[in-house]
Amino acid sequence: MLEIARLALRYPDFAACYDLTVPAGALCAVIGPSGGGKTTLLHAIAGFERPSAGRLHFNGQDLLPLAPAARPISILFQDHNLFPHLTAAENVGLGLKPSLRLDAGERERVAAALAEVNLTEFASRRPAELSGGQRQRVALARALLRGKPLMLLDEPFGALDPGLRREMIARVDALRRSHGLTALMTLHTPEEAADTADLFAFVANGRVEAAGPWDRLTAKDGSESVRRFLGL
Ligand SMILES: Nc1ncnc2c1ncn2[C@@H]1O[C@H](COP(=O)(O)OP(=O)(O)OP(=O)(O)O)[C@@H](O)[C@H]1O
Question: Of 67, 87, 89, 101, which has the maximum CB count within 10 A?
């Protein structure tokens, strides 16, 4: 379980204080208006930003004292950060060893991760020879290979067409289930995750203003701010 309580951060023009609980193994879609603090929340969990106060625990472990690299977290951004001079397989292999000196077992794990995202036959292509969706699948394979139990996805598929975006959300959903991951994903198109996310966190004005399953938040007697945001 991910437990966030009174987690406070401040930028010169923005103050945030988050409360959110995500059950272990759940997919939480983080939605809300632009500038509301969705990315800041993910950055605080990842350790890229230092909260001034509050509590951040994952499966009973206090994450706040840990450096970003020591946290049990893998991250997928819209800008997938693939190296242009390396093949898909090498980019995935970086998730295991930055030196890329992989032994036979590690090479097998890379091949298995590529197979999980249906990219086996693209293993030796470079990013420029792949579509946007395929590049994001390479990044997803690399993130999976790291074997971290908490996955943060910051608008990872925003640049893809709506159909492909839905396909990728479904793929993330299937993979996090089979790997038993807890996942938080920011989204600008919340309805696309209505069928997949276990819960939605509506972030606005630096706060989680509402959290819960889609049907409950969007019901007539659900969250007024969510309904206004969605134009319901
Ligand atoms: N490094 C920073 N320094 C100062 N202010 C920042 C920094 N990062 C974000 N902010 C401010 O914090 C606020 C929240 O930004 P954040 O990126 O978390 O919003 P968001 O909900 O993810 O928005 P979007 O949907 O547009 O991506 C914004 O007002 C932004 O300008």
Answer: 89
